[in-house]
Design goal:
single chain; 283 residues; eight-stranded mixed beta barrel; two-stranded antiparallel ribbon; 25% helix
Length: 283
């Protein structure tokens, strides 16, 4: 994920006029690392020039290149790496994926990807900064990520290209472009995430949410029971040690109907992930 998440340098949600920004590229290179049998890792475009660890229990690969509209340039190689995971943690699939998310509705005049005229569960999108267009924007981003980015890369890596065979995470971070300044802005952000989640679920995918509690509240706010996001499990970021990640397993999930199933920490400039012991889903 982003280096900003790793270091908990949480900033205010981007306001109107903020342009899309790429995260800094990691420069760490070195010998293959020794890993704990129960440890997973998540990687993406910043690790394209990095020697990845071996004997990982599971691997989570970023499909996008830091922005929801771009592909990870080394997606094929990293999918192949994740496919070599040991599967030592039964609750975690060996190969998992995460996707960048955003809602640039407040700066829609600066981009070419904002929808113009499409129906949604929130009504008809007319090209404005509305709940309907936010929902459609999320759906389109998920569609492109799945079919134009993931499936060709999976085939090139010799893997099953059926998205339903993998767990997918929605990466929700302040460094992407989000709406802000009002409750209505948070609702539109939520609608964009709902569009992504619903599209993936319609493809048979198990979907989860990645963020920190602070970033999630600043971007999305409260999620009601009738939202498609409400029952999704959480992957919590922000810890700087394995012990801190284990502690985060006991934190509240990002949504009221989900569970914390994965926690991330950073060691040696690399994202490590531990599986959380989970109880039954809240009623």
């Amino acid at each position: 994920m982003r280096r900003t998440v790793r270091a908990l340098a949480v900033t205010a949600v981007a306001v109107a006029g903020v342009v899309l920004a790429m995260p800094a590229t990691a420069s760490a290179e070195g010998p293959r690392r020794e890993v704990r049998p129960a440890t997973g890792y998540d990687v993406s475009h910043p690790q394209c020039a990095t020697v990845l660890p071996g004997e990982q229990a599971f691997g989570v690969v970023g499909v996008n290149g830091g922005l929801a509209t771009r592909v990870n340039p080394c997606l094929v190689e990293q999918l192949d790496w994740a496919a070599g995971s040991t599967g030592a943690v039964r609750s975690q699939p060996e190969v998992q994926l995460y996707v960048n998310t955003a809602n640039p509705g407040q700066v829609r005049d600066q981009i070419s990807t904002w929808p113009r005229a499409t129906d949604s569960p929130y009504g008809t999108c007319d090209g404005g900064n509305t709940m309907a267009c936010s929902r459609v924007y999320g759906r389109i981003r998920a569609q492109v990520t799945l079919h134009a980015f993931f499936q060709p890369a999976a085939r090139a890596a010799g893997l099953d290209d059926d998205p339903a065979g993998y767990r997918w995470w929605l990466d929700v971070e302040t460094m992407n472009t989000w709406q802000s300044g009002s409750t209505a802005a948070l609702e539109r952000n939520r609608a964009a995430l709902e569009g992504m989640a619903a599209y993936l679920q319609d493809a048979g995918v198990e979907v989860g949410l990645y963020s920190t509690g602070q970033q999630w509240r600043g971007i999305v706010g409260e999620v009601e029971r009738d939202s498609v996001l409400y029952d999704l499990d959480s992957w919590l970021a922000g810890a700087e040690s394995r012990a801190g990640a284990v502690d985060n397993c006991g934190e509240p999930p990002l949504t009221g109907g989900g569970r914390v199933v994965l926690a991330q920490y950073v060691d040696d400039d690399l994202d490590h992930d531990v599986a959380c012991r989970t109880s039954a889903r809240p009623g």
